Sequence to fold (482 residues):
Amino acid sequence: MRCLSILSILAIVMTASAQTIDKQLYDAYDKYKESTIKDRRFKHAEIQPLIEKLKSDNQFKVEKLGESIEGRSISLISIGNGPTSVLLWSQMHGDEPTATMAIFDIINLFRSEDFGSFKSNLFDKLTIHFVPMLNPDGAEQYMRRNALGVDLNRDAERLQSEESKILKGIRDRTDADFGFNLHDQSRYYTVGYSRNPATISFLAPAYNYAKDINEVRGNAMKVIGKMNDVIQKYAPNQVGKYNDDFEPRAFGDNIQKWGTSTILIESGGYQNDREKQEIRKLNFMSILSALEVIADETYETENYSKYDAIPFNERQLFDLKISNLTYELGGNEYTVDVAINRFELEYNNHRNFFFYSSIQELGDLSIYYGFEELDATGMKYERGKVKEGAVAYADLEKLDFVGLLRQGITHVRVNDAPRSMRFTNYPIGVLRGSSSLNDRLSLGQHATFLLTKNGKPEMAVVNGFVVNLKTGETDLVNGMIR
Fold:
């Protein structure tokens, strides 16, 4: 009885430890966050020094797998000596970099002296292979496709791209038991039909049109159930499930078919996290929690119910939703909701971007939501006016922008703005030459207009950002020069 009691106590202690390790990792994350990668638009040259320094760390094996179409190296970083092989690849799409950031954060954790028993457990039971930035040519241009113009995730069968051949080759060579296909998805996806953004979405891809579940796919579903348990602690009700329709050309679907239990992680949207730094942290947690349950084989006792309970993604979000706006047309008044999105336009060799906002939807949008929402009950849509006369570009900063907006002026004309300039930091629209404004509220229209009450401007929308004309407050990032 005494031995049984001791064993019981040990079991309780071990269970408590397992239950708290994710919280310890979450709290310690900033210590491991790779400081040289601060935003999404990094390039191949910026991760190469991080890879090179691992060559002098005998924990890691670093191997050049080959080169992209434009000659950029694609590397494999391996650690651990366990019998279970795990392969993780990121940035198959060049403009989907969140998990690449998280991979280098995880590598920093692995290089540290912290969490020794946790890491020893992983390295004794797993051999972990990372392929960060599979599509470096796409990353260079911050575009989805590779230099051939091919979507690598539709090249698993034909294998025309060098990058596709590399991924297929390393999958076959490692005979990976588990694979992690790491992507980014639109920030406008929601968890089911809720207002919550699908910050992280998981999927165990189907391997046939019937969406059958064999042991390989079933194991991926079980691991996802465990991952969801962890992520719900830090992003509650913000986990979705990606569409599971079978795509016969896709790598995730085929790698599942080839015998590797494949888990898709999609990084979506999160309030006030355009650069995806919080979502980067959630990737860090998702991957580590998965590695732990694979190493300990605790996923094996799961059934599919947790996976099945994760709601599928729906596209229910916009950047700004304005509700109950009165719109006058042809002498009649109508009540409409207006949805606006802010699109990124690149400059500086794809390193930076500015926003161009336009109206994406009109009408009854009661089933949709906004990252920002404005109830315009009692307010009317009004097209703004253009300030009389032209303003010198150098004198723009001298203008009283809020004062102009209060007068109903949303645009100024500037004839000498440099042709290279496409945006300003000012809460006003800038027109070149004789450009005119659209009279109607319409789809695709540039999102700059007034919201009036009793005939006086109360709010302004400037390039998709709200300006409170009572207080002058705004979160505007940039205006547009058109």
The first helix runs from residue 2 to 28. Residues 337 and 366 are 8 Å apart (CA to CA). The two ends are 82 Å apart (CA to CA). The chain is about 30% helix and 30% strand.
